[in-house]
Write a structure and sequence with these properties.
By secondary structure, the protein is α/β, with parallel strands linked by helices. It has a domain of 95 residues: Nucleotidyltransferase, domain 5 (2-Layer Sandwich), CATH 3.30.420.270. The chain is 29% helix and 21% strand. It contains three helices and seven strands, in the order αββββαβαββ. The strands form two sheets. Strands 4-3-2-5-6 form a five-stranded mixed β-sheet, with helices on one face. Strands 1-7 form a two-stranded parallel sheet. Strand 5, helix 3 and strand 6 form a beta-alpha-beta unit. It is elongated, with a radius of gyration of 26 Å.
Length: 146
């Protein structure tokens, strides 16, 4: 008696649900991604104390470029930061934001090598613009390399 050979069954992957899975993955990554308003690389100073900034806090950046010139950047907490001419422009931007919200939080991100005189000048302009709540961005002391 001759037993006929069975043909091998081909494996099929159902592709109908692939679009749903791809959409859910895209949605997951969009929801979990953190949006940074300023990506300027700055060597932050160290600090023992720490505080959490609000997500909508305005960001002021003070650093130096390769030629040694001071670079000022500003973000209102929603849009990406953009370069401004100097402390006077920080005053204008700060006064525009504090006009609608006097208790708006500001984060100052300054390079650790910048003289305190420049930081103090920037803080004076911010205070003149009505800023009452300023956080200085620092690194925790535990990050210090041995």
């Amino acid at each position: 008696m001759h037993i006929p050979r069975q043909r091998p069954v081909r494996a099929l992957i159902p592709t109908a649900a692939m679009a749903d899975i791809a959409f859910l993955l895209i949605l997951f990554f969009l929801v979990t991604t953190v949006h940074e308003v300023d990506r300027t690389r700055v060597s932050l100073p160290f600090s023992r104390a720490g505080a959490e900034a609000q997500k909508s806090a305005a960001v002021v950046v003070l650093t130096r470029d390769d030629s040694g010139e001071y670079v000022y950047r500003f973000s209102d907490g929603e849009a990406m930061s953009s370069a401004v001419a100097g402390p006077e422009d920080i005053y204008l931007e700060a006064s525009r934001l504090t006009y609608t919200d006097p208790y708006r939080q500001f984060v100052l991100k300054a390079d650790g090598s910048i003289e305190f005189e420049k930081i103090d000048e920037l803080l004076d302009q911010m205070r003149r613009g009505g800023v009452q709540n300023v956080l200085l961005l620092t690194r925790p002391l535990t990050e210090r390399l041995p």
